[in-house]
Amino acid sequence: MAVKETYKRVKTILVSQPKPERSPYYQLEEKYGLTIDWRPFIHVEGLSAKDFRKFKVYPEEYTAIIFTSMYSVDHFFRMCEELRYKISEDLKYFCLTESIANYLQKFIVYRKRKVFAGKRTIQDLKPAMMKHRDKEKFLLPCSNLGAQDVTSFLKDNKFDYQEAMMYQTVSSDLSDLRDIFYDVLVFFSPLGIKSLFDNFPDFKQNETRFAVFGDSTVKATEEAGLFINIKAPEPEVPSMTMALENYLKLSNPDE
Fold first, then answer.
1. Sign of the Cα pseudo-torsion (161, 165, 167, 170, in order)
2. Residue 77 belongs to what H/E stretch?
3. Strand pairing of 161-165 and 92-95?
4. Which terminal Cβ of the chain has fewer Cβ within 10 Å, N or C?
5. How far apart are CA 15 and CA 19, in angstroms?
6. How far apart are the first and last CA of the chain?
């Protein structure tokens, strides 16, 4: 664990996410003469039909479904196909966002189905869902992490519902990075920190700087005994790239 901040020059950064097509990170890379690599530390895996059957949850018994992400859409339809369950045309779809609702068109004839979309959270869907609360039986496809805000809403409002774990977020194999060292590691989720130690149980921070985003990631990083050098969001730095740049101004002052 680092004892104090030294602002040693930064040359390399690893961001624990997939590489985007466009990103403000690319401007940082050019401005400060950095090498920024991208590598997702976690990934999603679907449960097999065999493992799903152990939960004794039967999709055909439900008349409405709640989608919280595109992953949940993908794995619901995949699971139904593997179970050879024919999806009823009367099934109602409640989607947390418009983009999730639009994604449904990949699997259903949209205009023939009853689809409800929110803007961002389950509270946006509350008016539509309350109208159907006493008529429908709701299924909530989710990962091993669950969907806490949604389940709390369903429980508090006395919905007839069932969670259905159809996919899980797991640590990716990072063994090829064992002998590669970066000046800064950037994390956005507690699962990224978990993956780091799943892959490298004997990891020592030494001079590696940690940049972390979000309270839960900060907590996981500190609980792992790591020193946080760069933190976001903060009142003056709402994004990770802004937090990194503030640090780089001190570590790479001649750029």
1. positive
2. helix 70-82
3. unpaired
4. N
5. 8
6. 28
Q: How far apart are CA 136 and CA 139, in angstroms?
A: 10
Q: Indicate the pTM of the whole model.
A: 0.80
* 45-169 CATH: 3.40.50.10090
Q: Which of 104, 70, 30 is nearest to 252 (CA)?
A: 30
Q: pLDDT tens, 141-167? A: 999 988 889 999 999 999 999 999 999
AA letter at 115: V
Render 217-253 in DSSP notation, one character per residue: HHHHHHHTTPPP-EEE-BTTB-SHHHHHHHHHHHHST
H-helix or E-strand spanning residue 255: none
DSSP state of 194: H
Give the Cα separation of 231 and 237 in Å (integer). Answer: 9
Look at residues 43, 35, 30, 44 and name the one whose alpha carbon lies nearest to residue 14.
35
**pLDDT class for 178, splitting at 50, 70, 90?**
very high
Distance CA 196, CA 174 (A): 8
CA 57, CA 208: separation in Å to the nearest integer?
A: 46
Q: pLDDT tens, 17-75?
A: 999 999 999 999 999 999 999 999 999 999 999 999 999 999 999 999 999 999 999 99
- Calculate Rg over the CA atoms of the chain: 22
- The arrangement of secondary structure in 12-41+172-251, i.e. its CATH architecture, is 3-Layer(aba) Sandwich (3.40)
